[in-house]
């Protein structure tokens, strides 16, 4: 086995040891096909109030601007599908937010992976990314053969589904590159048909400014009146387009202790959430992704849902 092949095999084996579902590698280069798509998406204001999506346009498309001398993008998937879910009569929280904030959990694992690479292979410069920098993670994961981008714009994987986080290491090390897989959405339109706000405006194109996740997390102003009666009890995020995806019938529960749901998330009823205080919010959602919407934002969402 040559050095490039053995280094690639080591990184993939180490990723598996750290609990990652899968690992793929692609060449760090300009994302030529994604550039016009991103430009078109932004020009149509499909980012809504997410102004940060307009920043660092070049960096989003060229990993060598994030890591000078970058040769490889190592893409990794980490399962978050929960064993138990919320009770039926509750306001809903997206499954990714049941436990500890994934940024903390996965960043630690990426740092350990980079440390192992340096220890085993030698000095390798690189950076770890978990949905917190201008990186088109789904595009890189698709290039790395970890799945295809579905009609709901999520990365989908045969026999696995889409309930996983995507992360990257961008490093200045030449590795063996994987090849993309084919699209397996076929004629299915389950996600398009199920979206109550018609956020999937075309197959493979999501208008972020119409998405329930956007309304409940990113939007700082009032939720628009036209969304009344269309929120389907989601108070933080939304999983509808994933829940209906046929590939997610293959989802298996994760085994990451830090992603175990907080008891209140599973047991609270709608009335419990309506009576939530700032103090209890801070306690339940300590180190949780839900902190992003703040107490005031979550209560705004609950109030809006209660008027439906």
UniProtKB/TrEMBL annotation:
> Which Pfam families does the UniProt entry name for this protein?
Fer4_16, QueG_DUF1730
GO BP term (any one): tRNA queuosine(34) biosynthetic process
Task: Report whether tRNA processing shows up as a keyword of the record.
Answer: yes
Q: In which pathway does it act?
A: tRNA modification; tRNA-queuosine biosynthesis
Chemical reaction(s) catalysed:
epoxyqueuosine(34) in tRNA + AH2 = queuosine(34) in tRNA + A + H2O
Q: Name one GO molecular function term.
A: epoxyqueuosine reductase activity
Binding positions ([4Fe-4S] cluster 1): 185, 188, 191, 245
Q: Which cofactor does it need?
A: cob(II)alamin; [4Fe-4S] cluster
Q: Please report the stretch or stretches of sequence annotated as the 4Fe-4S ferredoxin-type domain.
A: 173-204
Q: Which family does it belong to?
A: Belongs to the QueG family.
HAMAP family linked: QueG (MF_00916)
Name the UniProt record assigns to this protein:
Epoxyqueuosine reductase
Lineage of the organism = Bacteria, Pseudomonadati, Bacteroidota, Flavobacteriia, Flavobacteriales
